[in-house]
Amino acid sequence: MKKTLLVLSSFLLASNLFYAQKDSKNWNGKKCAVVLTYDDALNIHLDKVIPALNSFQFSGTFYLIASSPVVTGRTEEWRTASQKGHELGNHTLYHPCDGSLPGREFVTEQNNLSNYTIARAIKEIREANQVLKNIDGKSERTFAYPCGDLKIKDTLFHDYLKNDFVAARGVNEGLLPAKSVDLSNVNSFVENGSTAKQMIAQIEAAEKAGSFIVFLFHGVGGEHPLNVDFEEHQKLLLYLKNREKDIWVTTMVNLGKYIQTKQSH
């Protein structure tokens, strides 16, 4: 009897370890997923960030303001970036933000989301999609809310765009399992003045939680008030390269599609 119980206990322990190991690699066969996103179509993204990502053979997601001179004046470079595997995401045509909120003195009357109608917002976002398609030829992409603003007055405008995007990235922090993710408002971690050590700690927290992390960068070595030092960004990329066996570095569109498959099962 004791021998039978011992064998049964060993079997249960082995089974639990098997499933724990299986469950710990639930992000495309890895322990954690990391998405590197960059907002606002800055020159530094083309000049420094994309070459850095390419050197590590990583793909990033770049949320482009479609009317930006950095988009219209450097179209071929963005096309080349897309061909290298980087995602060109939709950050609207003009980057409207809700100027009625506190601390929004920078919002102009023309780009004040609180003055928009739903119809205007949808029209401009779809126009931006067309601009991006003209660059990369792709129909599948993701969206990022300018300033993290989800609503026009009391209406969630993305409700009218759910068939236009695989996912939409918000600005709220949080670590979730795939099945709990709201693809219309995916959590992200806004980085400003962050060190590599701090960002690595965030990845390790995501890995421990069996989750993923979306980094939200603006400036990387300058060109934006929200900025991360280029050398700290390089250290982050080196860490990710050294952890490739366990960490899936992917684009927002690929993460969104992967989560969709998890949520459908």
List keywords for this structure.
single chain; 265 residues; alpha/beta; TIM Barrel; 6-stranded parallel beta sheet
Please characterize this protein's 3D structure.
With 265 residues, this protein is of the alpha/beta class. The protein has a single domain (27-241, 249-263), classed as TIM Barrel. The chain has helices spanning 2-24, 43-56, 69-72, 75-83, 118-136, 196-208, 230-242, 252-263; strands at residues 32-39, 61-64, 87-90, 143-144, 151-152, 155-156, 168-169, 189-190, 212-217, 219-220, 227-228, 247-250. α6 packs parallel to α7 (230-242). The radius of gyration is 20 Å and the shape is globular. The two termini are 41 Å apart. 36% of the residues are buried. The model is unreliable at 1-22 (pLDDT under 50).
Summarize the structure.
This protein has helices at residues 2-24, 43-56, 69-72, 75-83, 118-136, 196-208, 230-242, 252-263, and strands at residues 32-39, 61-64, 87-90, 143-144, 151-152, 155-156, 168-169, 189-190, 212-217, 219-220, 227-228, 247-250.
Q: What is the strand and helix layout of this fold?
A:
Elements: H1 2-24, E1 32-39, H2 43-56, E2 61-64, H3 69-72, H4 75-83, E3 87-90, H5 118-136, E4 143-144, E5 151-152, E6 155-156, E7 168-169, E8 189-190, H6 196-208, E9 212-217, E10 219-220, E11 227-228, H7 230-242, E12 247-250, H8 252-263
Parallel strand pairs: 1-2, 1-9, 1-12, 2-3, 4-7, 8-9, 10-11
Antiparallel strand pairs: 5-6
